[in-house]
Amino acid sequence: MCSLVFIAVFLWGYHEVVVPAFSYFGFIFDWPGTEAMSSVIVLSLIPLLVIPLDLVKPSVLILWWLYITAYVPSMLMPVLTLRIPESTLFPLQLSVLCTMTMLCAVPYAKTLILPTVVLSRTAFWWMFAIGWSGCIVFCLMSISMSHVIANFALLLAGESEYLVRADFATQVSQTGSMLGYVARELCEALNPFLMSFGLLSKRWWMLTIGVAGQLIYFGQTGMKEVPFGILLMFSLWLLYRKYRKHFGIALVLTVAGLVVICTVIDLSGHNALLSTQFIRRALAGPGLLTGYFFEHYSTVAHPGHSFIRTGSFQASGPPQEIGFYYFGNGNVDANASFWAEGFAEYGVPGIFSFAALVAFALWIYDSIAAGRSLDLALLL
Question: Given this model, what pLDDT does residue 223 score?
Answer without folding.
Answer: 84
